[in-house]
Amino acid sequence: MKYCSKCLLPESHETISFDANGVCSVCLNITQKGSIDWDSKRVELDEIVRKFQGKGDYDCIVPFSGGKDSVWTLYYTVKILGLKPLVVSFDHGFYRPNLVKNREKVTKQLGVDVLIFTPNWRLVQKLMLQSFLEKGDFCWHCHTGIFSYPMWIALEKKIPLILWGEPSSEYTSYYDYSETEHVDEDRFNRIINLGMTAQDMQARLGDEFLARDFKPFTYPSPKDLKELGVISVPLGSFIPWDVKKQVGIISEELGWQGDQVEGIPSQYPYEKIECYLQGVRDYIKYRKRGFARTTHLTSIDIRNNRMSRTEALKLVAEHEGKRPQSLDLFLSYVGLTEEEFDEVVESHKLAWVETPRTFQLSTRLHDSDEWNKNPPMQRDQSLPTIEEWREFNQ
Fold it and tell me: Is residue 164 a contact partner of residue 18, using CB atoms and an 8 Å limit?
């Protein structure tokens, strides 16, 4: 498999390409940051802010999980921009205890109004299984809900400005730093929904749920958003994004605390601390694409001259590909055996990727016993059996 000559990203990374020197498109994206006139970008952000500040009950919406990027965005919105935001949190159902504490601590200290929405658990279970079978990614409800639900709140409460966190160009090549990235329906269909709309999901799940049940996962109409004059942009399109620096600030000033995550080295306690199924997600990615989050994180450090390739490769070998303890929990949610899980993952694996057939067990995390024990999946006729899935894929 081909790898970037600068970082560790392989050719199986989504959107990746390589220049004549073997440098990947993500590294090339990041090099653009040094040539951007960030002072002019900040002026552009201030002009957007002036357009909406003081015009309604809220100046903007900040979509919020309580992880590092959304906390920094909220901190910057309140402390630097001086805005009154409505904080909108789409609770995907798997927030870890420390994350919930962070969310409460940060929002209270910053003095903001918070709206938390948790979708129907029975529907979520079925969406998880369906998207896992079809796409090898069980997070469809999370991907779509995080980006669509705040837009519905914007329409409902007539708040035209939505400020997100980092731009996708920090990690992929869907967009680059030469343009202001808009978090809109085009981006939603291009990056977020795995090529399946909420209408697709409704058709697949049969008659148990109505169209209105899928609304939180459906993007609002462009016509309605245009009439409101919505501007939905990442904060990272206007200010330099430096995760480690930002984590230092929110930790010191807001008491935000990191956590250990399955499959991630201890020196990255700020990364993906939100979800207790994150280890399963990274494990699936490793088996499908031959790399996971440690490759991503160490590649960032290589680009910033904080780590050598030798050090990074050692961490990757030590942490990636281990079977997560949380896999048992995931299997109980979607009603699969581990053998069935393995079969589905293998069906979505890229042909040129080689991974071991046996996997070591990851270390049990300190809060594993506290993870939410939702009811396990009960099989019913509205869901495909593994046998039906096999026939569909033949």
Answer: no
Same-domain status, 175 and 139 = yes
Quote the mean pLDDT of the chain. 93
Residue 262 has pLDDT above 90, yes or no: yes
Q: pTM for the complete prediction?
A: 0.93
| Contact criterion met (CB below 8 Å) for 58 and 198 | no
**Tokens representing 133?**
């079978």
Alpha-carbon dihedral sign for residues 186, 192, 197, 198: negative
Report the number of distinct structural domains present in the chain: 2
Helix, strand, coil percentages, rounded to 5, for the chain: 50, 10, 40
Burial of 108 (0-12, 13-18, 19+ CB in 10 A): exposed
pLDDT range class, residue 355, cuts 50, 70, 90: confident
**Higher per-residue pLDDT: 180 or 68:** 68
Give the pLDDT confidence score for residue 106 in this predicted structure: 98
Q: Residue 30: what residue type?
A: I
Please name the residues in contact with 179: beta carbons below 8 A apart, sequence gap of 6 or more: none
Q: What is the CA radius of gyration of the chain?
A: 21
Q: For residue 10, is it within any domain?
A: no
Range of the domain at 325: 259-374
Q: What count of residues does the chain have? A: 394
> Please, which pLDDT band fits residue 383 given cuts at 50, 70 and 90?
low
Q: Rounded to whole angstroms, what are the CA distances from 29 to 93, 299, 356, 387?
A: 34, 13, 32, 44
Same domain, 216 and 272: no
Question: Closest by alpha carbon to 353, among 294, 287, 304, 303?
Answer: 287
How far apart are alpha carbons 34 and 27 in whole angstroms? Answer: 12
Is the pLDDT at 245 greater than 80, yes or no?
yes
The answer to whether the beta carbons of residues 73 and 163 sit under 8 Å apart is yes
